[in-house]
Design goal:
Shape: elongated
Number of helices: 8
CATH architecture: Orthogonal Bundle
Distance between the termini: 89 Å
CATH topology: MetI-like fold
Largest sheet: none
Number of domains: 1
Radius of gyration: 25 Å
CATH class: Mainly Alpha
CATH superfamily: MetI-like
Structural class: mainly alpha
Number of strands: 0
Length: 244
């Protein structure tokens, strides 16, 4: 009798574990496309738009610093100092929750784009500035000797050479920005992480779902890493052919 009871209890326990596992697998299968769609429609656009604007800001800031225009150079340095010295999460809160007290209302997605672009622009500006300064000064003098202006010399001679130096760290910044977009959930942007949080609130399966969204972030980062390697090979091959 006791043996039969033990077998019955073990069967019920195994059946319960099997039911829990089946439910968990069903949740993960159902949530994966939902999280991925938010990644493709919100996270990636947020990353691409923010980084494109950040590159424009960074290039202007770097050129202003290398041109050594007194007032503008100090403003550029002040901008880099402030942005690099404050957390991006605080910047998001200032723009989205702080500016409304001054009468400035910004929707969540544009607010996130503005914050990420301004924040990433400061870091990329230092990367581009260092790349520009790595180009020998004689390149600028050569451009002036053939009658080019400062901007023409930068565009035709200096920037193409600086690009090969700046490309790897800039792409690393892009990958870092992709992961940092998860902070936009704090200002109600429905990107991958917020989509996951909503599913967790409904299913109470926090660990598996957070691991699932981490895996999706890893997939995106791996793809960008492969693109970075391809781009580096192309730039190195182009540089080798030009030198030869």
């Amino acid at each position: 009798m006791r043996g039969s009871l033990s077998i019955f209890i073990l069967f019920c326990k195994n059946g319960k574990d099997s039911a829990v596992n089946t439910r968990l697998v069903g949740i993960l299968i159902d949530s994966f496309p939902k999280i991925l769609i938010n990644g493709l429609t919100v996270t990636l656009p947020l990353t691409i738009i923010s980084f494109a604007l950040a590159l424009v800001i960074a290039l202007i800031t770097a050129l202003v610093q290398t041109a050594k225009i007194p007032v503008l150079r100090q403003l550029a340095r002040f901008y880099v100092w402030v942005i690099r010295g404050t957390p991006v999460l605080v910047q998001l809160f200032v723009v989205f929750y702080g500016l409304p007290s001054l009468g400035v209302l910004i929707d969540p997605f544009p607010a996130a784009v503005a914050c990420f672009a301004i924040n990433e622009g400061a870091y990329c500006a230092e990367t581009i500035r260092a790349a520009l300064e790595s180009v020998p000064a004689g390149q600028m003098e050569a451009g002036y000797c053939v009658g080019m202006t400062y901007l023409q010399t930068m565009r035709r001679i200096v920037l193409p050479q600086a690009l090969r130096t700046a490309f790897p760290p800039l792409f690393n910044s892009l990958i870092s920005l992709l992961k940092d977009t998860s902070l936009a959930a704090n200002i109600t942007v429905t990107e991958m992480f917020m989509a996951t949080q909503r599913i967790v609130a409904r299913t109470y399966e926090s660990l598996p779902l957070y691991l699932e969204v981490a895996f999706i972030y890893l997939m995106f980062s791996t793809i960008l890493t492969q693109v970075q390697r391809w781009g580096e090979k192309k730039l190195n091959a182009k540089g080798f052919s030009q030198n030869s």
